[in-house]
Amino acid sequence: EYEGDRNAEGERHGFGKARLPNGDTYEGEYERGLRSGRGTYRFKNGALYTGDYLQNKKHGKGVFFYPDGSKYAGDWVHDQRQGYGEYLYANGDTYAGEWAGNKRHGQGTYVYKDTGSKYVGTWVNGIQEGPAELIHLNHRFKGRFLNGKPLGRGKFIFDIGCEQHGEYIQPVQEEEEEEEDERPLPAEPKWKASEITKLTPWSPHDEEPGPGEG
């Protein structure tokens, strides 16, 4: 069902409202029969998108409300979250930063609602990877992440004005002789402290250790 403007060829063109066979509805702009321009699309499952369209795809700026109560506001490219956007998760966590192919990718800040901690740094395909800071209530960790875990050199910076330098080391996995269906999870990297200093300018972006370090 469609009510709205049409062009000389009879295609939906201009402003209109449509109810799709699956029960979804769309109200907004059309161009030559396709959703293009500003519009609001309501899904039968309770989700809703309001924003820019290009040839039936979410493209430009838009806000998507998901059925679980989460919400994304930001850039879209060909129906995918891409560019800059802010996501509010159903559990109250938030992410503000760069996206590619629907995943957190690039620079971004993720805030954990339960603890108030936040991760400020790099993401690769939805996973924390690269130089970052993990900021807690009265201290923070500055270092590098791999596969969502800190690894390699880093430092803890305490609000009282000192730092603990060291590195996260990946423990060697004990090889089990028996055949096991379930592979155990990789062991968590272990923190090995080396020294406590006054505040220093070291950052994980400095790949080469400076004088007196390393």
Automatic annotation (TrEMBL):
Compartments in which it is found: Cytoplasm, Cytoskeleton, Flagellum axoneme
Protein name from the UniProt record: Radial spoke head 1 homolog
Source organism (scientific name): Dryoscopus gambensis
Cytoplasm listed as a keyword: yes
Physiological role: Functions as part of axonemal radial spoke complexes that play an important part in the motility of sperm and cilia.
Gene that this sequence comes from: Rsph1
Cellular component aspect of the GO annotation: motile cilium; nucleus
Keyword annotations from UniProtKB, A to Z: Cell projection, Cilium, Cytoplasm, Cytoskeleton, Flagellum, Meiosis, Repeat
Lineage: Eukaryota, Metazoa, Chordata, Craniata, Vertebrata
InterPro entries from the UniProt entry: MORN
